[in-house]
Design goal:
The complex is a heterodimer of chains A (about 400) and B (about 270). With about 400 residues, chain A is mainly alpha-helical. Chain A is built from 14 helices and no strands. In chain A, helix 9 (about 230-260) crosses helix 10. The longest helix of chain A is centred in the middle third of the chain and has 32 residues, at about 230-260. Chain B has about 270 residues and is α+β, with helices and mostly antiparallel strands. Classes of the chains: A mainly alpha (about 400), B alpha+beta (about 270). At the A-B interface, helix 5 and helix 6 of A face helix 3, helix 5, helix 6 and strand 6 of B.
């Protein structure tokens, strides 16, 4: 099926070329980082994780969200998702690819990455995270490719793929739970030491991921002959709404515990993020942008009439996605490090090379996504009108 | 259920392979000898069940701290990047407020408020850094010292996120270019770019029967180092005779570094020994 990605319109190739340029720039910036060291980033002794790990965390959520298409179709026989589960699975593949790349560019000694497998350490959450992420990538590759291959031939997929599909449904929450455990099990970082972290991760993932899927579905409808379906988009809109409400609720729970208990260590990170602490307030505008977008998007989403207008829905979804990207891809990580272990404030801001590397990884991810979606859409276009049987 | 000979042999063969495979996998996982260990034991080597340290801050003046820090950093080729962002430090000083967050109050003796305290790796009995390391590059030795294998570390910095004491530094840049040639200790290796490092309680000195460099450089009685499992050790005597506190004991990491705050209730300016 790969050959389907090799033929395309001028627009398709321009887009591919654009992504290649961005990933080229990112690769060049990475080579700089490789020789100079991570000192080229804004990271420091006090804030030792930043943009890279934030992107990783956020994208694990995007990867897990593919299950929001797979589960209703395979467990509840929700037919409208039948033709687009592949979009969720292929998005998961692209997202996990980015996750792996973000971990790679964050490592001080990337050539030793296999040490994680050579010296398996069962007490390290990071070991388990690599296991569940690798497993999830593998499951989605096998399932997505096999089912799409069967669709392209107009036959039902082989029977052995069903158990793998059910496994992937159970697997999806695990990747984001284990990723939350990276943070939630660390003593001494008040912002992260919260039992609700994994639940909050899942809520934000199942809001942000489907929001992105809606935008992608609308783009696909605009530029190709494949229509993901009006009802499918509307159902995804409901999923985004419910999970965004849940996510905002969970954030409210965190705020209550921190501020009603009045424990300084619990309040400080929130203060730093939203009003600034000891004269340091680099993240304040970003965090408020996140809050405002969350509120405005919810005001749109909770009214069915507004949600039914697809252009309005697209705007709301873009706001959900951006709001969660700031919250999880940035605020969550930095809030864990500010104030530091001595209750003093060292701020962090990404440097230019760091930003270029980040953009480069996203470009590679979108390249993978574009190629995979091109294949899936070509199959759907060719087999339009034929009922699929999964 | 019936099965023919061929099927039986097939299943028997597969289960044997699976069984042997998992046995060897699990025995490897439990194999404690995977930890790095010195292959040659020096008869002079200092031994303990659990090394620990008592810091009597009343014995120190700022210039004493300076000396201790300089000796440690020279001994271990700790680079000086001249900027706080890339900073590497094994031992350093800070105020009471920052050393013991949440313990300070406005009516404390001015002397304690303004005094500096010595900070270093706590060599916790229940270290969070060891728990999170995905490659066992940081591990606890049998004598309680939390060690770092610079050749295995992948530079993921999970340990830096996990350590509640900010004891760990990362080589954000190539350290070799920032060790002054006249300061270089040829007996001790420099690190490479992209690995995490910290105080080791001078394992290399203990192995040849010497006290840690900081203990030797400190004013008399300022740093008491010894076996916490030995009731007759200097460390245990100091712990018995003085009221001591530890940094963030509520986190359960069980630090092995204790502080005597100002000896007899008040910090007194020490006499020159």
């Amino acid at each position: 099926m790969l050959e389907k990605a090799l033929t395309g319109s001028k627009k398709y190739w321009t887009w591919i070329f654009f992504l290649l340029i961005l990933s080229g720039i990112g690769t060049f910036a990475y080579l700089k980082q490789f020789s100079y060291g991570l000192g080229i980033t804004g990271l420091s002794r006090d804030v030792s994780w930043g943009l890279y790990i934030g992107q990783f965390t956020f994208l694990v959520g995007v990867a897990a969200s593919g299950v929001m298409l797979v589960l209703p179709y395979y467990l509840h026989n929700f037919k409208q998702f039948g033709k687009i589960t592949i979009l969720g699975e292929f998005l998961a593949i692209a997202a996990v690819t980015m996750c792996i790349l973000f971990i790679f560019v964050d490592m001080g000694q990337p050539m030793r990455i296999m040490n994680v497998m050579l010296y398996p350490t069962l007490n390290s959450v990071m070991f388990w995270d690599s296991v569940v992420l690798g497993g999830y990538l593998f499951l989605n590759l096998i399932v997505g490719w096999t089912v799409l291959g069967a669709d392209s031939k107009g036959i039902a997929p082989p029977k052995w793929v069903k158990p793998l599909i059910y496994l992937s449904i159970a697997w999806a929450p695990s990747i984001h739970t284990v990723t939350a455990f990276l943070y939630a099990g660390i003593p001494g970082r008040h912002f992260w030491l919260t039992a609700i972290m994994a639940a909050r991760f899942l809520a934000s993932a199942f809001a942000g991921g489907p929001a992105l899927l809606i935008i992608l579905a609308l783009i696909i409808r605009k530029f190709t002959k494949f229509d993901p379906g009006k009802e499918a988009v509307q159902t995804l809109g409901k999923i985004v709404t419910y999970f965004m409400i849940t996510n905002v609720f969970f954030v409210g729970l965190e705020l209550f515990t921190a501020f009603y208990s009045g424990i300084p260590g619990h309040m400080h990170p929130f203060k730093y993020l939203f009003v600034g602490l000891e004269g340091a307030h680099k993240l304040v505008p970003l965090m408020w942008a996140s809050v405002i977008m969350a509120i405005v998007s919810l005001l749109i989403l909770i009214f069915p009439a507004a949600r039914k207008n697809e252009s309005v829905l697209a705007v709301a979804c873009a706001m959900v996605f951006l709001s969660l990207w700031i919250d999880k891809g940035f605020g969550l990580i930095i809030g864990g490090f500010v104030p530091n272990m001595f209750e003093t404030v060292t701020e962090y801001w990404p440097t230019l090379p760091e930003t270029l590397i980040t953009i480069g990884v996203w470009a590679i991810g979108f390249l993978v996504l574009t190629v995979l979606y091109k294949i899936a859409i070509s199959v759907r276009e060719e087999t339009a009108g034929i009922e699929i049987e999964h | 259920m019936s099965m023919n000979r061929r099927e039986f042999l097939k299943i028997a063969g597969i289960s044997t392979i699976a069984g042997l495979g998992s046995v060897s996998l699990f025995s490897r996982l439990q194999d404690k000898t995977l930890e790095a260990a010195p292959y040659l034991q020096n008869p002079e080597a200092m031994k303990a069940r659990r090394w620990g340290m008592v810091i009597d801050v009343s014995k120190f003046r700022d210039e004493d701290y300076k000396k201790v820090i300089e000796v440690c950093h020279r001994t271990h080729n700790v680079p000086d990047f001249k900027n706080p962002k890339d900073e590497i430090k094994w031992i350093w000083t800070d105020t009471f407020k920052h050393t013991f967050p949440g313990q300070e109050h406005e009516f404390m003796p001015q002397e304690i408020k303004e005094r500096n305290f010595l900070l270093l790796c706590n060599h916790c009995a229940n270290p969070a850094c060891v728990r999170v390391c995905p490659t066992k590059a940081t591990f606890k030795r049998q004598d309680g010292i939390v060690m770092q294998d610079m050749h295995r570390c992948i530079g993921c910095r999970f340990c830096m996120a996990a350590c509640p004491f900010g004891a760990r530094s990362f080589n954000y840049r190539n350290p070799r270019e920032f060790i002054k040639e006249e300061n270089e200790n040829k007996e001790y290796p420099a690190r490479m770019i992209g690995v995490v490092e910290k105080c080791t309680f001078c394992t290399e000195r203990l192995a040849i029967g010497k006290m840690p460099a900081c203990v030797e450089a400190a004013p008399k009685g300022g740093l008491i180092f010894g076996d916490m499992d030995d009731t007759n050790s200097e460390v245990r005597k100091a712990l018995k005779e003085n009221y001591t506190i530890r940094r963030k004991p509520e986190l359960g990491t069980e630090p092995s570094v204790f502080y005597v705050i100002g000896g007899n209730g008040y910090a007194v300016v020490p006499e020159k020994s």
